[in-house]
Specification:
This protein has helices at residues 6-14, 27-35, 47-50, 62-75, 93-106, 120-128, 144-147, 157-173, 185-194, 215-218, 240-253; strands spanning 19-23, 40-43, 80-84, 110-114, 133-138, 177-181, 199-202, 210-213. The protein is an alpha/beta fold and 264 residues long. The protein has a single domain, classed as TIM Barrel. Helix 9 links the parallel strand 6 and strand 7 (199-202). Helix 5 (93-106) packs across helix 6 (120-128). The longest helix is centred in the middle third of the chain and has 17 residues, at 157-173. It is globular, with a radius of gyration of 17 Å. It binds 3-methyl-2-oxobutanoic acid. 3-methyl-2-oxobutanoic acid is lined by residues 23, 42, 44-46, 84, 179, 181, 202, 212, 214.
């Protein structure tokens, strides 16, 4: 597999070809993901839950993200590496620029941030300075205390319209990718159709351009596994690389997610 770029992901969307995204937090898993042909590796702040044992992503720091992003990049020179800006690392534009620069210098190709219209100027500013951005809408785990729990977002008409408006706004501001987490499948389908940039879903139905899963969830080793995930290790005889390949293949051929992994 040759190295994946934002350009190749945009071409995939235009050609109607789906791609797979998997989280990784260390060099060995990142290497396996590259070997398995996973197009995008996300150094998610979900590492707070699955690696560090916190009950949310709120305690994750920039030092954590830099440390894990550098490890992932050392293990994988094939996939596009997206890294999360953690809680309060982009509360102001100045913080966003400084911290995004640190993640890029640690090895990220793209930085991800959670939130809607309030991030318009931040996305514009990062894009103008040559920093690719992945936006994240729907269930935004860094706001779990404000949201009142890990719940499907955008079920009511007004909330769905707000998410669609935010998605358009962030694309216009210069976002290169969008993650949609835990939204009804029909809403994700509309947003995917309306946006030119690739839309990556998790708990957002089968119509998005790509899917992302937390690697420990798809290997069945997380203490709690959400309904929208699937254990691919069970069906590949315990071989992690094969499980990653099976996940990638299932995403590209439309075999995952099924209706049982989606919300309406
Ligand atoms: O942190 C993470 O792993 C994420 C994905 C669940 C999208 O943001």
């Amino acid at each position: 597999m040759k190295s994946i770029s934002l350009g190749s992901l945009k071409q995939a969307k235009s050609a109607g070809e789906k791609f797979a995204v998997l989280t990784a937090y260390d060099s060995s898993f990142a290497h396996l993901a590259g070997q398995a042909g996973i197009e995008v590796v996300l150094v998610g702040d979900s590492l707070g839950n699955v690696v560090l044992g916190h009950d949310s992503t709120v305690p994750v720091t920039m030092d954590d993200m830099i440390h894990h992003t550098a490890a992932v990049r050392r293990g994988n020179d094939r996939s596009l590496i997206v890294a999360d800006l953690p809680f309060m690392a982009y509360a102001s534009e100045e913080q966003a620029l400084d911290n995004a620069a640190l993640l890029m210098q640690a090895g990220a190709h793209v930085v991800k941030l959670e939130g809607g219209a309030w991030l318009e100027e931040t996305v514009l500013m990062l894009a103008e300075r040559g920093i690719p951005v992945c936006a994240h809408l729907g269930l935004t785990p860094q706001s779990v205390h404000k949201l009142g729990g890990y719940r499907v977002q955008g079920r009511e008409e007004a909330a769905a319209e707000q998410i669609l408006r935010d998605a358009r706004l962030l694309e216009d501001a210069g976002a290169d990718l969008l993650v949609l987490e835990c939204v009804p499948a029909p809403l994700a389908e509309t947003i995917t159709r309306e946006l030119a940039i690739p839309v990556i879903g998790i708990g957002a139905g089968a119509a998005t351009d790509a899917q992302v899963l937390v690697v420990y969830d798809m290997l069945g080793i997380s203490p709690r596994t959400p309904r929208f995930t699937k254990n691919f290790l069970a069906e590949t005889g315990g071989d992690i690389r094969k499980a990653m390949e099976a996940y990638g293949e299932a995403v590209r051929t439309g075999g995952f997610p099924g209706p049982e992994h989606s919300f309406n």
